[in-house]
């Protein structure tokens, strides 16, 4: 199955429940009050959120002479298209992966390593989640699977020291990409955020421009909770992009739109399953087509 087919399948539930209905309501019509109310309700129920819903309705109203459905498609693609490319201009490029435990962060780090390896890049994986022995072991498995170097210390070690060693190794061995897998327990929020800041400070001593990307991994199934997580992380670290995982689950796909609109953070990758190749760069047009039309 091609990736777009997976996209369609993954978003089938949200399409049938919400966005397909929006298409039915809007197709070939102008936006009167009744239609407007119906669309507002469907958008909010699909996790698009109030702010993004108001923006979308306003844009459709402004294009009063045009087909409302075509305008909706155009507005969504425009909203989601900005800045989706990864910043890979420096060698090594350091990517810091952040997110709460359970969002699929370590798996995503491994899948990213696979994606880069297949594109001819040499990858270093850093096991900076030193609180969980399982995370270190899991990353080592991904290292073997993707032919990446894994830098790990023992459980309980200083995670910033692991990050420093990984960047140091990448520089000395002329590697292309460093992926830092960090801890994600939010119940000690302040400590966790300080830890993330420290990692960023320490690697700057070795490579001033690093990290080049700070990617927040969000489980799409968590919906508005995912949005709240993103707000908390954004307060403490400069999130440059979102990786939205588990879009093949019971996710309401609207959360992607809410994140981009409310936080101004682009979606850079999406995950659609358990397979190693089920993580792909985000394509706004494909996403919107799969969400609204399934074709």
TrEMBL record:
Stated role: Involved in targeting and insertion of nascent membrane proteins into the cytoplasmic membrane. Acts as a receptor for the complex formed by the signal recognition particle (SRP) and the ribosome-nascent chain (RNC).
Protein name per its UniProtKB record: Signal recognition particle receptor FtsY
Superkingdom per UniProt: Bacteria
Its membrane topology: Peripheral membrane protein
NCBIfam families named among the record's database cross-references: ftsY
GO CC field: cytoplasm; plasma membrane
Keywords: Cell inner membrane, Cell membrane, Cytoplasm, GTP-binding, Hydrolase, Membrane, Nucleotide-binding, Receptor
UniProt subunit comment: Part of the signal recognition particle protein translocation system, which is composed of SRP and FtsY.
Domain SRP54-type proteins GTP-binding: start-end pairs: 266-279
Family the UniProt entry places it in: Belongs to the GTP-binding SRP family. FtsY subfamily.
The keyword Hydrolase is annotated on this UniProt entry: yes
Gene that produces this protein: ftsY
GO annotation terms (biological process): SRP-dependent cotranslational protein targeting to membrane
Pfam family, one: SRP54
InterPro entries: AAA+_ATPase, P-loop_NTPase, Signal_recog_particl_SRP54_hlx, SR_rcpt_FtsY, SRP/SRP_N, SRP54_GTPase_dom, SRP54_N_sf
Main localization (coarse): membrane
Catalyzed chemical reaction(s): GTP + H2O = GDP + phosphate + H(+)
Binding-site list for GTP: 99-106, 181-185, 245-248
Organism ancestry: Bacteria, Thermotogati, Thermotogota, Thermotogae, Thermotogales
EC number, UniProt record: 3.6.5.4
